[in-house]
Design a protein that fits this description.
This protein is an all-alpha fold and 395 residues long. The protein has 2 domains: 13-91, no CATH class; 107-113 and 120-393, no CATH class. It has helices at 13-25, 30-45, 51-63, 68-112, 118-144, 148-162, 168-179, 184-200, 221-233, 243-250, 258-270, 278-309, 321-351, 356-372, 378-393. The radius of gyration is 21 Å and the shape is globular.
């Protein structure tokens, strides 16, 4: 006798929204903790879908761009009540973090920035965030860089980003080279084309260490929406991969400082939300309420769209090895882009340090802790510890 695939209970749209709103209110600890919470409730306890199908869906979400926990919620909402259910589930999961980040950004912009004594506290937090990002790069890379060619693509992407090559060139070249690796002539042709484009096109993605770019593009609502959309479309391998693109379109245009940008990443890590909610902070500091909404819509639009448009085909993606290789090459290039961004952020932070030795000591302690400790409270505890460390450094 064949076991039937389990199905969700009959739920009204209101109850569905409230269920995922509850998930959103409890979404502390990053994507691993968020996915574990959803799995416990909807797979183990309520049996919406089988464990096997959940694992297949998770595999798909991890190779597609976007925050995977949010995409899972959208998909599971569609399993329960169709596309309107997916929309409501996704909104329920993201809205608590969105509103909390709006409140935090408003308080930061209105009451915290520029106040005596706060600069050293936030500087300490920024140092800790750099350690957290370095650990994230290591984790992402350990899952993605599985052979020498992927390592080579990541290294080339790092070098290209450091010299200001437009970000899409290493990403596109990385995906094509890895997918065409068996056809060496085509792979070499793609590599040659990438070199030509890198030298012919102007450097548009470079943010030189310690330098905030000139605001050559006005900070309009549309520009912020596009900045968020770029981050949402290129978030491969975790939310940290959105950092380079949002930074390039905010810090790189002179709309925001590196310090404020890192403060937003820190706040995102302690709120119940997908980490990409740091974009909401950047949007608010740059463009107020309208800017926050525009960049957030852009960031989350792909996460809704991939599930809602390709619902019937998503699981079939797992069976397509050609697409896997393309996405693996893109993801390897993204690792290089994040690593280069980390170096640029670190240089910018070092230039603002009153005592480089003490700052490096705080960074080393934070790095050792983030490397050894696990759990959903680790990042909030480190952020608080970083603020205390920054205050002590200023004494």
């Amino acid at each position: 006798m064949t076991n039937l695939e389990p199905s969700p209970p009959s739920l009204s749209l209101t109850r569905l929204f409230l269920k995922f709103l509850r998930f959103g209110c409890l979404a502390f600890g990053g994507p691993v903790a968020q996915i574990a919470m959803v799995r416990q409730a909807l797979v183990d306890e309520e049996r919406w879908i089988s464990s096997e199908r959940f694992n297949r869906l998770l595999a798909v979400m991890q190779i597609l761009p976007g925050p995977e926990a949010h995409e899972l919620c959208v998909h599971l909402g569609m399993v329960a009540r169709g596309r309107i259910g997916g929309l409501l589930a996704g909104l329920g999961f993201m809205l608590p973090g969105f509103f909390l980040m709006l409140l935090a950004a408003w308080a930061y912009d209105s009451w915290i920035v520029g106040q005596p004594g706060t600069a050293s506290i936030f500087f300490g937090i920024q140092i800790v965030v750099l350690a957290i990002i370095l650990r994230a790069v290591h984790r992402i890379g350990s899952h993605i860089l599985e052979d020498w060619l992927l390592w080579l693509l990541a290294g080339a992407s790092f070098a290209a980003t450091m010299i200001g090559v437009p970000f899409w060139i290493p990403l596109l070249a990385g995906g094509l080279i890895y997918s065409l690796a068996a056809r060496k002539a085509l792979a070499v042709a793609v590599l040659a084309g990438a070199f030509v484009l890198a030298f012919v096109l102007p450097s548009t993605n470079a943010i030189h260490p310690g330098v905030v770019g000139a605001a050559v593009v006005p900070a309009t609502t549309l520009a912020l929406f596009i900045a968020g959309l770029k981050g949402g479309l290129l978030t491969f391998g975790g939310a940290y991969t959105a950092i380079p693109y949002v930074r390039a379109d905010t810090v790189g245009r002179g709309w925001l400082s590196d310090g404020s940008f890192l403060d937003g990443v820190a706040l995102a890590g302690v709120l119940p939300a997908p980490l990409v909610i740091f974009a909401t902070f950047a949007g608010y500091v740059v463009g107020g309420w309208e800017g926050a909404i525009a960049i957030t819509v852009g960031m989350f639009l792909p996460a809704f769209a991939f599930s809602m448009i390709f619902f019937e085909r998503l699981e079939a993606v797992v069976e397509n090895p050609a697409l896997h290789r393309l996405l693996a090459g893109v993801a390897a290039a993204v690792v290089g882009v994040i690593a280069a961004t980390l170096v640029q952020l670190g240089w910018s932070t070092a230039e603002r340090a009153s005592s480089l030795g003490l700052s490096l000591a705080l960074f080393a302690v934070a790095l050792a802790l983030v490397w050894r400790l696990k759990g959903k409270l680790v990042m909030p505890a480190l952020v608080i510890g970083g603020g205390l460390g920054g205050w002590l450094l200023a004494l």
